[in-house]
């Protein structure tokens, strides 16, 4: 819990400081006097000001955002000698540059964070696919557990090498949201028998990026060899004679190709609160044995399920995915652009009802993911931080009053008409913008709570 909170505060602190520093740096470069640079809102808990006429830097008690307060005649009277330093006296292009600098700083930060994550390198599962879900697109295409997806073609005739299962998931998810057809270069796990497979994602209704979408596609979990690990003393598996190193070939006559299938067949044995004996065909030191295994019925955290008490398989085959300096930077640019485009598309689809509002996440989900990424290592946390930075940059560029994008819309109006937006309309648009933002925040918070309660 403490790790999650600290990771969340660190994430917000970094992103807010970079966003506001973008505004601050460009404002200073344009000759605008910056009165205050604040991280957070509410009561000031730390303050620094080198001189009475310098910018005041503060940290406030509520760390959910920040702001840069500039000299502006619309907010308070300005001394005649300082009029040239007022924000409202600057040219249209200077004001637009100052406003857009915050979101652009977040996008630039994302590029560097993604690049740094690629430079450090991360452990990711090899693109060996687990058993496709029944009725999924992957199953209909003829894909099988243990196959290695080596490359992908988006219909251009050019094969793009896949470094890991993470790359495969990312490419397939984007294609599903676009309703595309893909070609996969597939071989057996050892690289033999390479062939191409068509994956038709045009018929998938991708309203939200979640486990249900992954199930419909059928390329979710990595392949795990069905070789048993530790057998718990006193468990149903130990009573049946299962041993560490046993390879599970079939259960009740149904072939097993992946460790996840072992779990599914055991848990699927529970019907009406009762379990029955299962015939496990295992290979042990070159011999095949048939063992009768009767799972135990256990209840944990309010859920009842069947359990054998063995590790159902080996860990997935892992690879270190790492890039050089220039390649990592290039990947940072590409990933930032792809995530930005995907974010805009999903927001647009939510607006017209083609995507679910469940895709919106709030501070609780961000805090949870921040804590998880920190425990996995620096590269994972940097990747997570980059993702949130992209989201913050794109969100702030939306044409909504109260956001930077809303102010840019005002400046576009001013540039086209030659006059600023009337004060009456500014007030109305501000109230509307507040209402929209409050609605989005409420939906995001509701989704957070629903996820924590297991309702999503």
Automatic annotation (TrEMBL):
Cofactor(s) essential for the protein: Zn(2+)
EC code(s) of this entry: 3.4.24.-
Transmembrane segments: 378-398, 434-453
Presence of the UniProt keyword Transmembrane in the record: yes
This protein's UniProt keywords: Hydrolase, Membrane, Metal-binding, Metalloprotease, Protease, Transmembrane, Transmembrane helix, Zinc
Residue ranges of every copy of the Peptidase M50 domain listed in the record: 7-439
A Gene Ontology term for the protein's cellular component: membrane
Family statement: Belongs to the peptidase M50B family.
Name recorded for this polypeptide: Zinc metalloprotease
Organism field: Rubrivivax rivuli
């Amino acid at each position: 819990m403490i790790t999650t909170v600290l990771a969340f505060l660190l994430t917000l602190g970094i992103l807010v400081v970079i966003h506001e520093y973008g505004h601050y740096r460009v404002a200073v470069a344009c000759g605008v006097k910056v009165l205050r640079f604040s991280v957070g809102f509410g009561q000031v808990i730390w303050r620094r000001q080198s001189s009475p006429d310098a910018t005041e830097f503060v940290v406030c008690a509520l760390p959910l955002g920040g702001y840069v307060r500039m000299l502006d005649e619309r907010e308070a009277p300005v001394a005649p000698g300082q009029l040239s330093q007022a924000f409202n006296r600057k040219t249209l292009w200077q004001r637009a540059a100052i406003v857009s600098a915050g979101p652009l700083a977040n996008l630039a930060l994302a590029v560097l964070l993604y690049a740094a994550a690629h430079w450090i390198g991360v452990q990711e599962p090899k693109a060996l696919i687990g058993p496709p879900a029944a009725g999924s697109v992957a199953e209909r295409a003829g894909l099988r557990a243990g196959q290695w997806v080596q490359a992908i073609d988006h219909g251009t005739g050019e094969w793009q090498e896949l470094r890991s299962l993470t790359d495969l998931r990312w490419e397939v998810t984007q294609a599903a949201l676009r309703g595309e057809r893909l070609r996969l270069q597939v071989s057996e796990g050892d690289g033999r028998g390479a062939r191409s497979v068509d994956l038709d994602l045009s018929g998938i209704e991708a309203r939200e990026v979640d486990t249900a979408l992954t199930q419909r596609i059928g390329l979710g979990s990595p392949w795990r060899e069905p070789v048993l690990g530790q057998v718990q003393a006193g468990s149903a598996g130990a009573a049946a004679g299962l041993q560490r190193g046993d390879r599970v070939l079939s259960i009740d006559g149904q072939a097993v190709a992946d460790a996840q299938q072992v779990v599914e067949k055991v848990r699927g044995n529970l019907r009406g609160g009762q379990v029955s004996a299962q015939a496990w065909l295992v290979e042990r030191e070159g011999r095949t044995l048939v063992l009768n295994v009767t799972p135990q019925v256990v209840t944990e955290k309010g859920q009842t399920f069947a359990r054998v008490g063995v590790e159902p398989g080996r860990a997935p085959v892992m690879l270190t995915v790492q890039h050089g300096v220039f390649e990592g930077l290039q990947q940072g640019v590409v990933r930032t652009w792809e995530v930005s485009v995907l974010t805009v598309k999903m927001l647009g689809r939510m607006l017209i009802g083609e995507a679910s509002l469940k895709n919106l996440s709030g501070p609780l989900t961000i805090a949870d993911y921040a804590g998880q990424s920190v425990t996995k290592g620096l590269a994972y946390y940097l990747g997570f931080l980059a993702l949130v930075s992209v989201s913050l940059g794109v969100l702030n560029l939306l044409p909504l009053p109260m956001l930077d994008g809303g102010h840019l819309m005002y400046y576009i109006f001013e540039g086209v008409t030659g006059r600023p937006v009337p004060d009456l309309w500014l007030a109305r648009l501000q109230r509307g913008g507040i209402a929209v933002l409050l609605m989005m925040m409420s939906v995001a918070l509701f989704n957070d709570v629903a996820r924590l309660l297991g309702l999503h």
